[in-house]
Amino acid sequence: MAGFWGRRKREREELEAQDADLARNAQRALVEADERIRVTTDELAFAEAELGEGPTTELRDALEAVRTHLAEAFHLHQLNHDEIPDTPEESRTRNARIIQLCAWADELLDDRTEALAEPIERARRAPEIIAGVRRDAEGLRTRIPHARDTVARLAQRYSADALGQVADNPAEADQLLRFAEHSSDVAERRRDAGQREQANVALETATEAARRAATLVDAVEAFEIEALRAESTLAAIVEDSRGDLVTARSAPQTPAVAEAMAALQSALAALPSPGAKTDPFGDLTRLRDANTALDAAIAAAEEKARRVIPDLAHVRHSIDDADRQLHVARDVIAGHRGWIGADARTRLAEADRVRQDLDRLLGGSAATTPDIPEDDREQALALSRRAAFLAGESLQLAQRDIDSSRPPGGPDQWNGGWGGPPRGPRGGRGGGDVMGGILGGLVIGGLLDGMFD
User: Fold this and answer.
1) Which of 50, 68, 96, 226 registers the highest number of CB atoms within 10 A of its CB?
2) CA 84 vs CA 76, 77, 90: distances in Å
3) Distance CA 14, CA 20 (A)
4) What is the pTM of this model?
5) Which of 340, 248, 335 is nearest to 294 (CA)?
6) DSSP secondary structure string for all residues of 48-90
7) pLDDT digits (tens, 9 = 90+) for 186-210
């Protein structure tokens, strides 16, 4: 008994110590959260000075939400120290809620202030960024004449379709650079006037315009390199395609192979003659697609040639066998519904589903479809065999259920057959349990028929 009371005392002391720790943590969380609100309020003022009110809306809304919920936390703390005595459970619940609210407030403010860190840093570096945009624009402007010369030189070799992706790049880059310089001037003037939000928008616009201009100028120089690479690749694919056409003549001659060969020959014939302006990218794409299509057609024809295609009559026989077994299984289950369990019914339902999949594969009734395409025969054979197997299993399980429902001793206990009344050991009318089981099965079967048929 002393051990029991001693254990209860230790448990009570441990719980009191935990409650004391929880109370101290709640008080510390309240102080930290309140201080965090004060610091974040100062940060909001600084962010508004740097960015304007628009970009700082989310932080301002977060501060309002935190103040509202922290007021609830202070109220809970006050309830823990008012003159009304509280139970340990009430104090424990309040302190846990205080910690939860303070943690939520800290997490929300962290998220909102981190989102503003990069824009604030960019705003602080605005003079440096403006100078960088102007410097980049000046350097890019010296490359535009060379880009124009490059486009003019490439126009002597490549078609207008090929040059369409870079022909206007020098002019567009020049416009973007003028826009970047103008936006930089706007950003500087707005910043000096204290219009920080507008200044930051103009600064971002200038930075993006300069970046896009650099991309356009670089694309002109990269085009020539990529065009030369495409021409080299095109020559290799032309040689490979001619070899594929020779190989295709010895491959199985299916309609798909013949069509792919004609498409590849047409793509080769469409290549420009020497000295003409070319579109190496378009020519490469068309020839590569035709070459790939021929490779795929040959591979499919060879795989089909290696595969043994089931004879149509064999597939027909398998379908007929599946239909016969399904018919027998349905009749047996329908004739002994009160005795058939879930396993047999499940196999029959699955067999019916597989048989329906077979009809969907052939686009109609498999029993009456006049022809079965060679590509579908293997799958049709597999589905019909699967349906027949499941129907056979259903029939075996149904027979098992029927046998288990018959009385012991066999039909000789029933006046020469199943139709007569049962006889007892002395020749009298006995076997009430057996007849009751059979009749019960029939009655249950009738009820189930009415419920589910």
Assistant:
1) 50
2) 13, 13, 12
3) 10
4) 0.47
5) 248
6) HHHH-SSTTHHHHHHHHHHHHHHHHHHHHHHHTTSSS---HHH
7) 888 887 777 777 777 888 888 899 9
**91: its two tokens:** 């104090």
Q: Average of pLDDT values for 408-418?
A: 48
C-alpha span between 113 and 45 (Å, rounded): 12
Q: Could you tell me the end-to-end alpha-carbon distance of the chain, in angstroms, rounded to an integer?
A: 69
Distance (Å, whole) CA 128 – CA 262: 62
Q: Angle at Cα 447 formed by Cα 442 and Cα 451, nearest 5°?
A: 145
Could you give the CA distance from residue 161 to residue 149 in angstroms, rounded to a whole number?
A: 18
Q: What is the pLDDT of residues 84-117, one digit of tens each?
A: 777 888 888 888 998 898 999 888 888 887 777 7
Residue-by-residue DSSP string for 273-332 = PTTS-B-HHHHHHHHHHHHHHHHHHHHHHHHHHHSPPPPHHHHHHHHHHHHHHHHHHHHH
Alpha carbon separation from 154 to 158, 177, 221, 277 (Å, rounded): 6, 24, 11, 10
**Residues with Cβ within 8 Å of residue 291, at least 6 apart in sequence:** 237, 240, 241, 244, 264
CA angle 314, 319, 322 (to 5 degrees): 125
- ∠ CA 330-354-325 to the nearest 5 degrees? 35
